[in-house]
């Protein structure tokens, strides 16, 4: 399999050619990938599901557009984890290639949609923080719940449309063009276009956060000088600065986890990849799951509102558990008292 190369003729679209993309040649490599995907995927689904529950179970939190965008990010990470782990492990670990080109491109489209929506949700969150800090007096008028839901709808529709283009015909089998060395049936020009889309998203996010950090530093300086008179405005500024720092941490993790994958994708567009680099790409792909797993941890540690909601959930759970444990004892005590009363009445008679 190490000597398997992607052919340049029409047979590149056959099922046998898919085996050339199964780059894990040893059992140890397959077990390692399976363990990483299972661990990261399970933790990612659990953590992001908890974030969604905390957001939508709290009326005060779910009304804020900021947390709608964070909820969209959590949903995208859940879908990405489920679809990515199932398809990736099935392909690379179990070497399942007995499905059609359409099924494979549908799976790839699901992964692409989810990860693109995750990145786009970060962009909306960055823009939300940008507006909140740069125009605080007009923020509530500019960022309403209706506009937030509309933006999310446009986001998911755009990501799904772009991801489904290979399935709709933009693939190397239909166009008889050059195929990617990393993904079966994917046209190199489509991969180049998707990479440009991702680079634009990242550039916009970085620009928005650079401005947010600059304004956040100004707010910190302002609060130090006017701490006595600031009042509610001071509290609002502290919340904006805290959330901005939290989302910068999310962005830093995103860049660190996605950089190896994006670099190898860009390199594959301009040059042929060795079998070793293709194996490296397979392992680096699991970093995307790590990114999705780390995001909720950052929210829990940095967001006071989500952390408070989490503590309320745990407190309620402990009370329920305590009540369940005490219930049999209370029932047993009640039965004992009833029996004693009956016995006393019997003796009295």
TrEMBL record:
InterPro entries: Cnbnoid_rcpt (IPR002230), GPCR_Rhodpsn (IPR000276), GPCR_Rhodpsn_7TM (IPR017452)
Chloroplast in keyword set: no
Ranges annotated as spanning the membrane: 31-55, 67-91, 103-127, 148-170, 190-210, 246-268, 280-301
Keyword list, A-Z: Cell membrane, Cell projection, G-protein coupled receptor, Glycoprotein, Membrane, Receptor, Transducer, Transmembrane, Transmembrane helix
Superkingdom as given in the UniProt entry: Eukaryota
SUPFAM superfamilies: Family A G protein-coupled receptor-like
Compartment(s) of residence: Cell membrane; Cell projection, Neuron projection
Molecular-function annotations in GO: cannabinoid receptor activity
Alphabetized Pfam families for the sequence: 7tm_1
Domain G-protein coupled receptors family 1 profile: start-end pairs: 47-299
Membrane topology of the entry: Multi-pass membrane protein
Predominant localisation class: membrane
Gene3D superfamilies the UniProt entry points to: Rhodopsin 7-helix transmembrane proteins
UniProt GO cellular component terms: neuron projection; plasma membrane
Family (UniProt): Belongs to the G-protein coupled receptor 1 family.
Name of the protein this chain belongs to: Cannabinoid receptor 2
Organism annotation: Zosterops lateralis melanops
